[in-house]
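S1.2 Input.
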Amino acid sequence: MITFTTSGTDKELKGILHLQEANLLKNLTQSESLNQGFVTVSHTVEDLKKLNDYEQQLIIKDEDQIVGYLLAMTNASRNDIPILIPMFDLFDSIVYKEKLISAYKYIVVGQACIQKEYRGKGLLDKSYSAYKTFFKDKYDFAITEIALNNTRSLNAHKRIGFVELKRTRDINNMEWIVVIWEWK
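S1.3 Output.
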């Protein structure tokens, strides 16, 4: 039985981290990362607890097992994970509909991940629908950045309704695409 809910327990946070670890770019072959997608940032239980102080993380469960997640970050949590501060600084510099992103109330999809055996079953679309339901009354849109070479993720986010805002490169010369999913 698949359910979409928010994280609350240490066991659930550890389930997110277990799935994250299995899908980190550094832990995948080149073929796996090209065909299956990947995540780039590694978190700790403490990181996720800090994020949960602002907004809980959306999790997908099959019975008691975490089989997917969408992380939720807010502008208030921007300094809690130092490696992600440049992403928030980038968002602050982007103009959207004649206003800086920082002038809006937005939620950042910190990461999206579905367990390999559960991919291709519509769970990402359903999880984003749940994410929107959980957060649309508090935020104008969801925003995130996706590595250009993560084509599976880019295509999935386009299908869901995200649109490209900006392209940029990080300090390692990796190209990223900032995407937004407007809710208002």
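S1.4 Remarks. The chain has one domain: 2-182.
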